[in-house]
Amino acid sequence: MLIAQITDLHLRPRGRPAYRVAETNMLVERAVDALASLQPRPDVVLVTGDLTDCGLPEEYALLRGLLGRLPLPVFVVPGNHDRREALRAALPAAWLPGAMEEFVQYVVDDWPVRLIGLDTLVAGASHGALCARRLAFLEEALAAGGDRPTLVFLHHPPFACGMEGMDRIRLLDGEPRLRALIEAHPNVERILCGHHHRPIQMRYAGTIAQVAPSVAHQVALDLNPGRESGLVLEPPAFQLHRYAPETGIVSHMVYVERYPGPFPFVLDPDYPGRA
Prior knowledge:
The chain is α/β, with parallel strands linked by helices and 275 residues long. The chain is built from six helices and 15 strands. It has helices spanning 24-36, 57-67, 84-90, 132-144, 164-167, 175-183, and strands at 2-6, 44-48, 74-77, 106-108, 114-117, 128-129, 150-153, 171-173, 188-193, 200-204, 207-211, 218-219, 231-232, 237-244, 248-255. A six-stranded mixed beta sheet has the order 4-5-7-9-11-10.
């Protein structure tokens, strides 16, 4: 099974860049084209939040048009820049199958790996939360899956990464209970997140939690204490997660833009030891 993960699209109304510098609509369109051209083709695409920049109906209409080009199943969860009501009103039900009435949470059981989407949105805030209801849903979903390989995807990372500006707005509420639930289910192969706009990984609760880079702008890497976060126009990228029974999940980072190559590894005639 091949799972593509894109995140932090931050779509804007036409002609209005995000933060006045990031042409997110153009960048997302390029990412969609890159996804559509992948061979082998992914089985599913997960979109881990911040689908839009302001949660506007116009932004969700653009999202529906762009992701609707993909000949692939698409599953989305909201980020802190999204609005649940506008998201539900604009997007196809197939992108959030059987979601809870209050929260955009669901389970997809149609593939070798079970997919559990969680909603960490706190309306009007930048940090994330998993309240008792959302955590009860996760507990029931994990129990129902037995020992089947499972992937949990959400927007806010549940761990501190060392970038203080982002750590202040990570998943703050409900994290200890999330950790306990994941520890109790060693069949959870990955926790996939967005929000931080950088590729970040750590061992978490007996599995691997990882953040995908944005398909638009990135957050500047700054591990100095007391620094606020800023955006940087580093190359957009996404992640591919390949599942096979003999290996579990192996993850790859894929740059959106195309670069020269591939070229054959032809050794120089002066290479040491060459006859």
